[in-house]
Amino acid sequence: IPFLINDWMWRRGVGGSIASMIAYVLAVVGVFRLVRGRASRFAAWLAAALLGLNPNLLYMQSTALTESIFLAAMIWAVVYFDEFVRGCRGAGPQNYPTLAKGWRTWGTQAPSNFSFGIAPRLPAAKALERCGMVLGAAILTRYDGWVLAFVIGCAAVAVVLRTGASEASRGVRRSLAAFLLLCALTPALW
Q1: CA–CA distance, 88 with 94 (Å, rounded to integer)
Q2: Residue 138 pLDDT grade (very low, low, confident, very high; cuts 50, 70, 90)
Q3: What is the DSSP letter of 179?
Q4: What is residue 168's predicted lDDT score, i.e. its pLDDT?
Q5: CA distance 18 to 24
Q6: Rounded (5°) CA angle 110-116-118
Q7: Where are the alpha helices (DSSP H) in the chain?
């Protein structure tokens, strides 16, 4: 609504495209962060460039459509879900496979320039909560978000069940309950 107060912005469609442009930038940054969590910096830059230079996405980000907004929400939901999964596994730099001995075998020690992936930026519980908030935005943007929330919700339950009943996962189970409640209440209130 702030972008549509000016009548000129409303009539030309510029006001509606501002949200799409912001979502486009967030989607590109999200792809970079997602790939960087699992691969090298070069691969992350390449993935971000491939998404950012996609002609269809360049067109959609210049219009007042919801596709760019949903795409950004979907990418960030996957980013936070990936950080949740890596956090539940106790992922740290020492637990990531590194490519050693030429490009032929997987080893545990390699020069730092062959090391792939970075540790999650958020604790598992916090990542799951953020995933739920982004999924709530995706649900409110398009009906496709309902399916995405269902699939990620089922996967989150499976991940938590696999972690066991340790005391350390109590915060994760609490966050899972909040995540599921948010993903259920958003379409119910819609």
Answers
A1: 15
A2: very high
A3: H
A4: 54
A5: 10
A6: 120
A7: 7-12, 14-36, 41-52, 55-60, 67-88, 124-141, 144-163, 170-189
